[in-house]
Amino acid sequence: MSGFLHDDQIAVLRKQGFVVARQFADPSQVASLRALAQRHLAEHVAPIEYEADLQYPGAPASRGAEGGLTVRRLLNAYARDPLFAQWATDPRIGQWLGRYFDEPPVLSTVHHNCVMTKHPAYGSLTGWHQDIRYWSFSDTDLVSCWLALGPETRNNGGLSFIPGSHAAAFAPEQFDDKKFFREDVPQNTDWIARAVCPELQAGDVVFFHCRTLHAAQGNRSDQVKLSVVHTYHPASCQPVAGTRSASQPGVPLMVAAESD
């Protein structure tokens, strides 16, 4: 795909903490990834995280309860199938993020690295949070790449983002004990009011900073929503030894040649 790399997209990411790159993935690639995700979902191919495991609002009480085997994430996408690995290390992603980081990007195989699902029934709500809350790296300039495998809107649980939140210096009391951004704190009201939910189509990608506040509502449609998400860091940024972030090696990305 020519012309996908635009400096203005990177400028938007720097300014607001997220940016949508329309039709970043080829339709045939998206179709293959979607078919594979649907098969693994139907067959419950491990490793899997179930909604009941996290107990977010709307989730079943346990795996043994009604809806207890509703899948939240198909984990370890990079090692799950070569198709997922090819997407995670796509040279176009390498080029885009290499331009952003101004150095080679590295795929984290620990954080995200999954197929996110959102089911119409028992698909839980996810409160406002920053992904960096449980990550341990020498720097905090990490970026995630979220690929929509179908339409994503507020109605089916699409991601909402708070522009500019990645650059804010929030106080600890603005978050609860699980590091969710509190909706009952007055100083958070104006921030939450700024939230936007970009509508995505299959093949669209959202690049978003690990400090950008984001959230997702439940899925009020009649179809399961599927997305693939991976996280990347610059080669000079290292996971902290002895932490979960360092528990598996990263994968350096090749960078595609730029198109005229």
TrEMBL record:
Keyword Hydrolase listed: no
InterPro entries given in the database record? Phytyl_CoA_dOase-like
In its UniProt record, a GO molecular function of this protein is:
dioxygenase activity
**Keywords attached to this entry:** Dioxygenase, Oxidoreductase
Q: What cofactor does this protein call for?
A: Fe(2+)
Tell me which domain of life the UniProt entry assigns to the organism this sequence originates from.
Answer: Bacteria
PANTHER family from the UniProt entry: ECTOINE DIOXYGENASE, PHYTANOYL-COA DIOXYGENASE DOMAIN CONTAINING 1
- Please state what the protein is called: Phytanoyl-CoA dioxygenase family protein
Taxonomic source organism: Achromobacter spanius
What does UniProt list as this organism's lineage? Answer: Bacteria, Pseudomonadati, Pseudomonadota, Betaproteobacteria, Burkholderiales
